[in-house]
Amino acid sequence: MVQTGERLASTAAERYLLIYMVAVLVIITSLVVVFFIVFQKRKNKLLLERIKQQQAFEEEIARAQTEIQEQTLKNIGWELHDNVGQLLSFANMQLSILKMEVADKLKEKFTDTSDAIKNSLSEVRALSKTLNNEVILNIGFEQSITNELNRIKKLKFKTAELRTFGDKIDFTNLKHEIIIFRILQEFMSNSVKYSGAESLIVTIEYLDNRLKITAEDDGKGFDMDNVEKGAGLINMKSRASLVHADMELFSKPNEGVKLVLMYPVNGVGI
User: Any residues with CB less than 8 A from the CB of 259 and at least 6 apart, and which?
Assistant: First the structure.
């Protein structure tokens, strides 16, 4: 009986010890799990904060670059309008005076030169307007695009036109209006320089609180997988990101280039 009691007591002690060890193990495991979860949350929070800081830094850099570029364009616009424009006007006036003093057989040559200077003066003045933010805001987004299309049509294209659909929505942020225009201006400039296109179409669709802008040419295009990402494309993407616009570029060899911008008109930003 004594041995049986001792055996039962020993078994009970072992059972309590086992329960105690299991309980300790469960507590330790729980603490490890809780610590791991807390650690992961803290780690994720730090990573998220770091990402936000990096994004804020990149936005600040992009904003500074954009402001510098805009000021540079503005200065160039003033120089073209005030200085180059005045020089061309003076040259044209001098030619007109000389034209009256030369023989009739030379007047035709003076007329051709005078016409060339007049066209150059007109082009310089049109270009200066597209570089000046105040002018763009003054005449409006659509008219600025139309003026730019008319200007480059004289240089290169058989067709260059703006198409609009839907009820017009005004920009709530005028800085965004300038930046969106600069993106389109960059696309049009690239079309003039590289595409070999004959047609350029810009389409504006006014949707519910969104602006969908499509610009496309019928030029030689390029392979999207192998294209070298130059400063122009990087600049366009940087500007689009700055105003929280989704930007996509589509192209295939011999099928032209297409730019699609989706901009939240009432979106936040700089």
Answer: 183, 184, 187, 213, 214, 215, 216, 236, 247, 248, 249, 250
